[in-house]
Amino acid sequence: MRPRLTQSELEAYLDEDLAAEKMAQIENALRDDPKLLEVLAMLNGQRDAGVHSVGEIWRRGHLSCPDREQLGSYLLGAMPDDQHSYVKFHLEKIGCRICQANLADLQRQQDEVTEISAGRRQKYFQSSAGYLRE
Ligand SMILES: [Zn+2]
């Protein structure tokens, strides 16, 4: 079954501004569906005519990108629901590569911190175990 594509997804496709997986998905859909190709051609034509949808302007300016602090809160799940779903939409549906890269970077930092404190805990347990045996 083919997922329905939205206009903004097609526009993002024209900009090559989607995650690689999504790009491939749309390419496949276009191959199977001449109607969809027509829609894409029409969108492309509108661009030449200077018509830009809000979604397009929004994406091009990266106006919607959450900042790093917000991404950090998102990662920790320390964000109000509406903001959380907005960031989730931005990352997963818009597939913003900049924010995905930022998030991956934050995730890596967080993993390092977790590892360090796990290591400390381990040490602590070992020393108290040694202490108890004496
Ligand atoms: Zn972004």
Topology:
Blueprint: H1 7-14, H2 20-32, H3 34-48, H4 54-60, H5 68-76, H6 81-93, H7 97-133
Helix pairs in contact: 2-3, 5-7
Bound molecules: zinc ion (ZN).
Keyphrases for this structure?
134 residues; mainly alpha; 7 helices; 0% strand; binds zinc ion
Number of domains: 2
Task: Profile the largest sheet.
Answer: none
Our estimate of the beta-strand percent is: under 5%
Q: Any low-confidence stretches, pLDDT <50, length ≥5?
A: none
Provide a count of the helices.
7
Order of helices and strands: HHHHHHH
Helical content stands at over 70%
Q: Which structural class fits the helix and strand makeup?
A: mainly alpha
- How much is the radius of gyration in Å? 22 Å
Mean pLDDT: 81
Which ligands appear in the coordinates?
A: zinc ion
In words, what does this structure look like?
This protein has 134 residues and is mostly helical. The chain has two domains: 1-63, no CATH class; 66-134. The protein is built from seven helices and no strands. It has helices at 7-14, 20-32, 34-48, 54-60, 68-76, 81-93, 97-133. Helix 2 crosses helix 3 (34-48) and helix 5 crosses helix 7 (97-133). The longest helix is centred in the last third of the chain and has 37 residues, at 97-133. The chain is elongated. The relative contact order is 0.10. Zinc ion binds at residues 62, 65, 90, 96, 98-99. Zinc ion is lined by residues 62, 65, 90, 96, 98-99.
In short:
With 134 residues, this protein is an all-alpha fold. The chain is 76% helix and 0% strand. The protein starts with 6 loop residues before the first helix and ends with a helix.
